Amino acid sequence: MPVQMHAYESLTQWTWGAAVAISSVLGRDLQDKPRARLLLSGGSTPAPVYEALAKAPLDWERVDVALVDERWLLPDDPDSNSRLIRESLLRDRAAAARFESITRPGRSIEEAVSAANLHAQTPPGVVVLGMGEDGHTASLFPRMQNLEGALQSRAPYVAVDATGCPGAGKFLRRISLTPAGLEPAHTRLLLIRGESKRKLLERVLAGDDPLEYPARTAFLTPGAPLHIHWCP
Question: What's the sign of the alpha-carbon dihedral 149, 158, 39, 120?
Answer without folding.
Answer: positive
